[in-house]
Amino acid sequence: MDQFAVKVFVRLRPSVLDPAGEATKSASIKLGAEGIKSLRIGKMIEVKIEGNGEKEVREKIDLLCDRLFANTVIEDYEYSLEKL
Questions:
Q1: Which of 2, 44, 79, 80 has its CA 20 to 30 A from that of 56?
Q2: What are phi and psi of 68, to 5 degrees?
Q3: Helix, strand or coil, per DSSP, at residue 78
Q4: CA distances from 53 to 15, 46, 64, 81, 82 (A)
Q5: Is residue 40 within 8 Å of residue 14, measured between CB atoms?
Q6: Is the dihedral angle over the CA atoms 36, 37, 42, 45 positive or is it negative?
Q7: Distance (Å, rounded) from C-alpha 49 to C-alpha 67?
Q8: pLDDT confidence of residue 14
Q9: Is the dihedral angle over the CA atoms 35, 10, 20, 15 positive or is it negative?
Q10: What phi, psi does 56 have (nearest 5°)?
Q11: Torsion on CA atoms 70, 74, 72, 69, rounded to nearest 10
């Protein structure tokens, strides 16, 4: 079996309001970080996973993303794989 390190990035879709991002943007500006035009909050998930090749691992990660890591109604995800 091959082992992979996976980084999954989950973000709100551009059409979805991001109250946490807006609050963080406002606080950043108050702290003196001038020039911030946009700030959105997401999450990054790191997974080490085994499988019989990259195709099988991608299928497993897609299943996890679709059913657990992301709310696909309002969030998009992307990921990167690194064979260990």
A1: 44
A2: -135, -50
A3: strand
A4: 36, 18, 17, 11, 12
A5: no
A6: negative
A7: 17
A8: 95
A9: positive
A10: -65, -40
A11: 0
Structure tokens at 60: 């497993």
> Are 31 and 60 within 8 A, CB to CB?
no
Dist. CA 32–CA 60, nearest whole Å: 43
- Please report, in tens digits, the pLDDT of each residue of the chain (84 residues total): 999 999 999 999 999 999 999 999 999 999 999 899 999 999 999 999 999 999 999 999 999 999 999 999 999 999 999 999
Sheet holding 75-83, edge to edge: 42-51, 2-12, 75-83
